[in-house]
């Protein structure tokens, strides 16, 4: 790749590739400046590659990995990731380290969640997360959560767990809005999603299925989900009424003894 190649837009794949390359370099004991010199590159080229904002040829990635003593299947996997790094849709099978989803949420300055089945990860109490066999990741940045009323009624983990979960929603420093069941069909009906907005103006839609994380970056796809957010917002209760409903449902679950 020429040193004069212009900066390109990053993608979920290119950011993941850059993160993994940086890890390989550090594990091999290379400082970025020394690695750049050994490859005959500028320090800026290494920095852009590792931050995901610069594409790389197979030769570039192979040379980088060779200096970092990466071989075999891992070498082939990262070269293949480089070849795919310009694509705007990525399906990541569950069973990996969850690093991609965490990184994409962490880089976002504003996140909009729509949930129609269970409470989204960043709002879960440890007890609720354990009942789902999941973890409760930290919430960062500004977030708005649209929760279907049925999510608050579904007794995940039993009454005590649900009571604690709903009380947690009341205390959460986030905008939580309830979508009443009586709203009927609306733009969010097809399924849960998270819309992630970053400071560079790029947005990613994160979908979770039973077998994979899906990341959508195509502008047309993102626009459709942004329109869905507007549709959901139009039928959701305001924050004050949502808090009232959550409180009423917390009373309904009743704070029964643990295990009830």
Question: What can you see in these coordinates?
Answer:
By secondary structure, the chain is an alpha/beta fold. It folds into 2 domains: 12-87, lambda repressor-like DNA-binding domains (434 Repressor (Amino-terminal Domain)); 93-253, Endonuclease, Chain A (2-Layer Sandwich). 46% of the residues lie in helices and 16% in strands. It is built from 11 helices and 7 strands. Strands 1-7-6-5-2-3-4 form a 7-stranded mixed sheet, with helices on both faces. The longest helix has 17 residues, at 219-235. The radius of gyration is 22 Å and the shape is elongated.
Summary of the model, kept short:
By secondary structure, the chain is of the alpha/beta class. The chain has helices at residues 12-27, 32-39, 43-51, 58-67, 72-83, 99-106, 126-132, 149-153, 159-171, 219-235, 239-253, and strands at residues 89-93, 108-115, 142-148, 175-179, 193-198, 203-208, 212-216. It has 11 helices and 7 strands.
Describe the structure using short key phrases:
alpha/beta, 7 strands, 2 domains, 46% helix, disordered C terminus, 434 Repressor (Amino-terminal Domain), seven-stranded mixed sheet, elongated, Endonuclease, Chain A, 260 residues
> How many β-strand stretches?
7
In DSSP terms (H or I, runs of 4 or more residues), the helix count works out at 11
Largest sheet: 7 strands, mixed
Flag low-confidence runs: 1-7, 256-260
Class by alpha and beta content: alpha/beta
Distance between the termini: 62 Å
Give the strand order, joined by hyphens, for the main sheet.
Answer: 1-7-6-5-2-3-4
Q: Give me the CATH architecture of the largest domain, please.
A: 2-Layer Sandwich
* Overall number of structural domains: 2
The portion of residues assigned to helices is: 40-55%
Topology-level CATH name of the largest domain:
Endonuclease, Chain A
InterPro entries: Cro/C1-type_HTH (IPR001387), DUF5753 (IPR043917), Lambda_DNA-bd_dom_sf (IPR010982)
GO molecular function: DNA binding
Protein name: Helix-turn-helix domain-containing protein
Domain HTH cro/C1-type: 21-75
């Amino acid at each position: 790749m020429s040193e004069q190649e212009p900066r390109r837009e990053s993608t979920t794949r290119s950011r993941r590739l850059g993160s993994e390359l940086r890890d390989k370099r550090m594990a091999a004991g290379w400082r970025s400046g020394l690695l750049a010199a050994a490859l005959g590159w500028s320090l800026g080229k290494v920095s852009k590659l590792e931050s995901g904002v610069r594409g790389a040829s197979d030769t570039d990635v192979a040379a980088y990995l060779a200096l970092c003593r990466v071989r075999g299947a891992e070498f082939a996997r990262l070269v293949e990731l480089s070849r795919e790094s310009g694509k705007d849709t990525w399906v990541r099978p569950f069973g990996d380290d969850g690093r991609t989803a965490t990184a994409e949420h962490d880089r976002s300055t504003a996140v909009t969640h729509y949930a129609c089945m269970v409470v989204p990860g960043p709002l879960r109490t440890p007890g609720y997360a354990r009942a789902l066999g999941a973890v409760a990741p930290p919430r960062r940045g500004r977030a708005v959560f649209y929760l279907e009323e049925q999510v608050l009624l579904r007794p995940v983990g039993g009454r005590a767990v649900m009571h604690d979960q709903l009380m947690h929603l009341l205390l959460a420093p986030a905008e939580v809005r309830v979508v009443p069941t009586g709203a009927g069909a609306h733009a969010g009906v097809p399924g849960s999603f998270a819309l992630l907005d970053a400071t560079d103006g790029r947005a990613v839609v994160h979908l979770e299925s039973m077998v994979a994380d899906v990341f959508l970056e195509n502008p047309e796809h993102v626009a459709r989900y942004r329109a869905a957010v507007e549709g959901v917002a139009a039928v959701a209760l305001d924050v004050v009424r949502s808090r009232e409903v959550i409180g009423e449902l917390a009373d309904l679950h009743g704070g029964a003894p643990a295990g009830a």
